[in-house]
Amino acid sequence: MFVNPFLVKIYKGNETILVSLLGGGIQLIPSEISQVLFTNPSLLPERYITHFKDSEILFDNSDRFYNIFNSFKNKSFTKTELEPLNVIFTLTYSCNFSCSYCFQLRQKNPIGDKIISFDFIENAKEIVSQLEAFGNYPKGLSKIYLYGGEPLRNEPHLLKIVDKLLDTFTPSNQIFITTNGYDLNHYKPILERYSNLNIQVTIDGPKFIQDKKRRAKDKGSSFDKILSNLKFVKSLNHNIMIRINVGEDNYLYILDLMNELRDYNIFTDEDLPKHIYLAPVTNRESEEINIAFYKAFIDYYFEYLFRYKIRVSNIRPLDYAIKVAEGETITPSKFYCDAIYGKYIIDPIGNIGICEEAVLNENQFVGNIDKEGKVAIKENPWKDRTVEDMSECINCEYRYMCSGGCPWKASNCTRNYKSAMCDGFKEIFEYSILKLLGEK
Ligand code: SF4
Ligand code: SF4
To answer: What percent of the chain has pLDDT above 70?
Structure first.
């Protein structure tokens, strides 16, 4: 008999939680049964053998397992090649805020406050077609992102550029705008002409936190102005997403922010949680991660936020633990993120990159655009970074969930983009499963 190699054992008192990492599913079994399963499964009591075979924990032989695994693998792993292309226009690196955690503060900015030229934007459709043709995306272009710095500053040239981009790409493509929301009122005449734009605004806590952490360079306080802007944006039928960058200094105030948002009556009580997502701040410059913070955040999350089904991005093991515990099938992937296969970032002077967090770093540029809008581009240098090509990951049970971690962080921390970036995946996953099953 052959035991599914993608099983994880987590100890809980006298019992063992078996988690199936491919296909999903959790089983709670006595620890002595787990021991027999992993040492000599033929000695298991008959009823366990039947049960484990039904749950695809145990197979008659390894061929049977690999038949299933390979069909699963072919179906799921080719997904990445069939993803559509996303293009991110970084309109400027400059910003009207000064946030303490901004990645731009830690990188050199050789082009200062320069705003993307109108020539690029006039040729945007043609530029995107060239990118599409180069990458051979059978599903074509999907999403256009407007990104910065702050892409919606009150600045005449930016207003003109934003209008032109929206005119070019709506309604056939979904548009996502990442903004601090401070100058949205100046964009009212533009926003009134379009519908269904996806507008993401970051608010890091209730008023006293937001006004401290995300200060406007002109007036300091930003909370009230952003909230009043969101009110009119909502009335125009755009989709608003509030991102909360979560760190040690604000995670305990997420509920307070939700209460303040309720007081503003922008969303109904029922709708509010669907318009929020949490993004724990990720350090991509050092391999050290603050596990104590992640655990404290997970405690808070399960105590107060899980019941609202508020989404958390940036903690993949937590997200997967919730999916597994809720019986959802995880789609395995050998690639960590779409920087490897599905997006291009165009910067204000026409450089083309693959990771928006690495925008100012020339090591990740794969091409450029000339004044006439002609694209020159080379292969994605991270293309071969699959978890199957990473020696440190090859025997890890988590490999098709974790996919080797962030390649940009690997390049930054080790100078080798193929280094494993575990980021505490195993520990956070196990902690989350135990929390979900009611015990830390
Ligand atoms: S990065 Fe670490 S946790 Fe992730 S697959 Fe590789 S060895 Fe496993
Ligand atoms: S390489 Fe890392 S930072 Fe860049 S997009 Fe991928 S996950 Fe994000």
So the answer is: 96
Query: 182 C-alpha vs ligand 1 centroid, how far in Å?
Result: 40
User: DSSP assignment, residue 83?
Assistant: P
Buried b (16+ CB within 10 A) or exposed e, 336-351: bbebbbbbbbbbbebb
- Residue 357 Cβ inside 6 Å of ligand 2? The answer reads yes
What's the CA-to-centroid distance between 426 and ligand 1, angstroms? 8
Instruction: Compute the chain's Rg from CA coordinates.
Output: 24
Fold exhibited by the domain 86-369: TIM Barrel (3.20.20)
pLDDT exceeding 90 applies to what percent of the chain? 68
Calpha distance 73→337 (Å, rounded) = 17
- Determine the residue of 406, 412, 418 to mutate for testing ligand 2's pocket, defined as the one with the most ligand atoms within 8 A of the Cβ atom: 406
Q: What's the rounded Cα separation, in Å, for the pair 49 and 37? A: 9
pLDDT tens-digit profile of 147-199?
A: 988 999 999 999 999 999 999 999 999 999 999 999 999 999 999 999 999 99
Residue 440 has pLDDT above 80, yes or no: no
Strands 214-216 and 198-202: unpaired
Test site for ligand 2: of 387, 409, 421, most ligand atoms within 8 A of the Cβ: 409
User: How would you list the strands of the sheet with 375-377, edge to edge?
Assistant: 311-312, 276-280, 239-246, 198-202, 174-179, 141-147, 85-90, 343-346, 351-353, 365-369, 375-377
- With tokens 């090509």, the residue in question is 389
Q: What residue segments make up the domains of the chain, in order of their start? A: 2-77+430-436, 86-369, 383-428
DSSP class of residue 284 equals: -
Name the residue of 355, 380, 411, 417 whose CB sits within 8 Å of the most ligand 2 atoms, as the mutation to test its pocket.
Answer: 355
Residues contacting 115, CB < 8 A, separation 6+: 91, 92, 94, 155, 157, 158, 161, 348
pLDDT at residue 320 in the model: 92
3-state secondary structure of 129: helix
pLDDT in tens, 80-130: 666 788 999 999 998 999 887 776 666 677 788 899 999 899 999 999 999
**With a threshold of 0.70, does the pTM exceed it?**
yes
Q: Is 396's C-beta closer than 6 angstroms to any atom of ligand 1?
A: yes
